Amino acid sequence: MPQKVSVVIDARLNRISITLKLIVNTLMSKMIDILMVRTKRLQIPELGEYYSDMLKVEAALQNRTLPQEASSLLCDMLQQRDEKRQRMVEHLAKKRGIPSDEMWKQLVNGTHKPIDQDEAEDLYSEEI
User: In angstroms, how far is CA 8 from the centroid of its own chain?
Assistant: First the structure.
């Protein structure tokens, strides 16, 4: 009889151990997902007292949170600089001898390679 009890207890402990492992794995997976979401957020350095105050006032006037207002202001500024940005991308593409849409893709994907000083001098000795 005691041997049967021991076998039953061992089986139950084994099931409990498996269940706990599944729970821990699920929790770890969810924690990793949460951390990945957090790291995808854009972080900016402290604005300084003056600009921080201006952002607070602007957010209050627009009835937005600080992150919402900062995002809105950044988007507005990026829209204002569209033409200049496009000219800059075209310039970089021309220097590399590639189409501007390819340069754009490289810049967005972070795969562009800056031209070093020697390469730049060689390029400027030729006609761009």
Answer: 51
